[in-house]
Amino acid sequence: MVSIDEVARLAGVSTATVSRALSGRGHVSDGARERVRSATDSLGYVVSSRASSLASGRTQNVGVIVPFLDRWFFGAVLSGVTSALMRAGYDVTLYNITADAAVRQQVFSTFLRRQRVDAVIAVAIELDDAETAQLLDLGLPVIGVGGPNPRLRTLTFDDTAVARLATEHLIGLGHREMAHIGAGPEFEADFRVPSRRRLGFEQALADAGIPANPALLEPADFTVDGGYRAATRLLSGSGPRPSAIFAASDEMAIGALLAARDLGIRVPEDVSIVGIDGYELGEFFELTTVDQFPLAQGERAAAAILAQLEGISDAGTVADLPYELIVRSTTAPPRS
Amino acid sequence: MVSIDEVARLAGVSTATVSRALSGRGHVSDGARERVRSATDSLGYVVSSRASSLASGRTQNVGVIVPFLDRWFFGAVLSGVTSALMRAGYDVTLYNITADAAVRQQVFSTFLRRQRVDAVIAVAIELDDAETAQLLDLGLPVIGVGGPNPRLRTLTFDDTAVARLATEHLIGLGHREMAHIGAGPEFEADFRVPSRRRLGFEQALADAGIPANPALLEPADFTVDGGYRAATRLLSGSGPRPSAIFAASDEMAIGALLAARDLGIRVPEDVSIVGIDGYELGEFFELTTVDQFPLAQGERAAAAILAQLEGISDAGTVADLPYELIVRSTTAPPRS
DNA sequence: TTGAAAGCGCTAACAT
DNA sequence: ATGTTAGCGCTTTCAA
Fold first, then answer.
1. Which structural domains are found in chain B, ordered by start?
2. Residue A257 burial (CB count, 10 A)
3. Do A86 and B106 touch (CB under 8 A)?
4. pLDDT one-digit tens code per residue, A151-198
5. In A139-223, which residue ranges form alpha helices assigned H by DSSP?
6. Which nucleotides in chain D have some atom under 7 angstroms from a protein Cβ?
7. Do B47 and A86 touch (CB under 8 A)?
């Protein structure tokens, strides 16, 4: 590996000048800068991040914590994060918090603490107090994306409001017997998104003076399969069939669509279905949804972190993330 | 940040002994090891990867290059890679090669060369000669996953054989008028998977003595949307309608399924459809497919890299990746 | 088995 | 604007 000394020698300057020319910190004459540039070019020199980070304390690397990699939503967020960060010259180190508790603990107790990253972005992870404390203890810029965390700077997505919006859309169409697929005790473990969405559903019902019916709350795990099974129970049960279903994610909504299809129940004639996310596949099913623009969420998180790292102001207002109701063809007024 | 000196002082040994005790390299008495352990515990000490990697040359970090993050297949592979690597104590730094040529170039010319990683895994990326050379020039263990690259160690997925298998399944059912959705000149840019799959299709036809019909080759971009549009052209065109469609990915196959549905064409009665991947959503459509177990692909790539890094033998035979035909309900004999 | 000490390749004062 | 030099916090000879 070619080192800074060789560059300095070839350019006829000191290593300090090479360092200054390359990093842009401190003043360097145009001539020196040019000779350094040509020397690095001909030598193919790249600054060693190990040496540079040890000396400067900066790694040019951001850690990103995500709970899943094989779900569209997280892939989209991550895609937005990496493209923005790479464009700014940063590497992205990925910490995938899975069901494995030991690995999860190791991420907070070891991986994040070994000084490999300058900042951390946590995507849709519900952190317990100890984990939040460990993150804060890093002394690095940290930003959460998704559920609010009062102890962290967060790009907040107002799940409750989004769920209300979806539910009010159904109410506005005239529905009264509405079911919800989403939060259930067994899926509460990780991030509180599910329960916040259910809360919004319940609030909208209450506001409209519609009594809550526990029989119309079906827990599911946010997968297509989970949505399918939940909808099957709702639509083929012995009780009265709901005239509309609000699923807490598009993947579950698609599962519900498929369940209705398999049961010979027409959408939206017999039952209306609405989801949340903006999952691309939803378009094919003409799914009514509330888009939450995950790619843009990732880009905004990256921009916020970069602003903090480069010290550009206290960093553009950590506001709420946008969302938008997209009415397509899976919702309509109830029949009767 | 607590440093190794504090640990050494508290444990009553030298920093060299702390280093040895923590890394497991060199001999340390049980007593010393125990005192070091208790000192690190009470101090909450974690070895600084910046200092450690500068001194040792090892980073405990593996770079992973992927072309997409928002497609299920790549998320699944990445999931397998990260879980295996994290379990072994490695971090994973992600390089997302997007359409942006400048960023792509930067990955090879700068990001990968700044000594942040001990090894590189390249997932389903078709590298040109210059890029391959740059990777090799790193002097690190490198492994490719997917398309064969004669100049790289590769976990090869035999796309041609897989495509033949899918096509032969259709031929075995009695189909003669088969269409293919996949490779097209405009999507050839990046990885040659599309054309290898088309090749397998053509080989199977040739072996069965079925003449190739260019009108039955529809290019598409591997998305559901692309599959939908390609199938729409095939199924609603003026020419004779194919009795079966082989799509080069499950997402395109699902698009084809949806197109058939929208055209009122029954599957498999009027047209058979088969895909490739093992995409979870395929189950809901009863899609016949060739599963390629992406999660396992990622785990195997990680295991191969770890074996090389830890010097465990020349590393378990870089064999072909497994695949399996899963016959469900979207394929059947043609009508007549 | 342990310790002393010389780097690893940069950056950032401090001087000039 | 530039050079000199003392670290950054470890690992790894080399000796003992």
1. 4-56 (1.10.260.40), 61-157+295-320 (3.40.50.2300), 159-291 (3.40.50.2300)
2. 27
3. yes
4. 889 998 899 999 999 999 999 999 999 999 998 766 554 557 888 999
5. 159-172, 193-207
6. 1-5, 7-13
7. no
